[in-house]
Fold these 2 entries.
Entry 1:
Amino acid sequence: MIGNQVAGGYTSRTAELLPAGFKVSDDILKAMSSVKVADPSGSVHPGIKEQLSHSPDYEFDIVVIGSGPAGYYAAIRAAQLGARTAVVEKGPVGGTCLNVGCIPTKTLLASVAVLAHIRCGSQFGVDVGECRVNIPAMMKR
């Protein structure tokens, strides 16, 4: 441990940054701490490298707003290139797309597509009795 950093560039404050009630398994924390930070010497544009070297008074070099698909990718890439990176998220980690938007919607649409196929089964020579929708099971999926 160096200052407030642990191996892999993750700070000891990682757990403090998670939403209330969000639990991270010990295996995940162990895996996070074993991630090797890439040597950014040849990967960072010289102008950006110079700007980063002038920011020792700041805790972070880059702050990413939002932890959706673009935000988490940007934060990971910045950290891989050696920048001290923070992510700011107003809601659950993963943003709207992961938690209530794109991914959950596509999951529910897939369930409804299965229901539609079952109801049209007789057109394909498959007779199925009455089928019921189990909303809690769909939501859990």
Note: The first strand starts at residue 62 and ends at 65.
Entry 2:
Amino acid sequence: MVNATTIKQGFARSKSSHPLLRSISGTPKTYRKGEILFIEGDPPQWLFLIQQGKVVLSKNLPNGNKTIVSVRVSGELVGEVAVFDGRPYDTDAIALTDVHVIRFPRSAFLYALRTDPALAEQIIADLALRLRQAQETICLLSTQRVEKRLAALLLMLIPRFGIRTEEGIILDSSFSRYDLAAMAGTTVETTVRTLSAWAQDGIIKKYRRQIVIVDAKKLAQIAKES
């Protein structure tokens, strides 16, 4: 098993210098792992800037399950779409780890947008990035075979949440099997079974709270298979 200290150091991120901090006075707040920042349907009162930790955005499905739409990390915004257009939050936002944020009132955020062109450009860029990520998620979930969806998901997570080591690429241990299943649009049982098969084939190594991608090229092949 890879040394936990190495992982912690690899995932440490500096606090954000987001333009919001130059334009608006916010309120620091801490959420413990599992605590709710907001739920789908709540009025968009606050914009959140993550200083440390991870927040998962999820939606309820008609069958009672949840699907994870996105995971936000240090330096990224949460709730920006709803705060921008004034409609209710369209996802749940839950702390995946202990999270330190700065909260900004919607009214102050909108005023800053009107008076700070650089901030407005940054927010537009952020929204464009979210649109691209949403398109990637749609493409991922449109894949019929579970193995392809899960392989594509792991590959998508590598750039943001992977650490390259001699053993392979370690994925952030804060992601549970449930989280991976929700992001891939499948069941936990199927996710565990697929990961176990890949471990037997030497594509990954599976520890209790870690997944190490040993053969990323093979995962890419699986993701592209017809």
Note: The first strand starts at residue 27 and ends at 31.
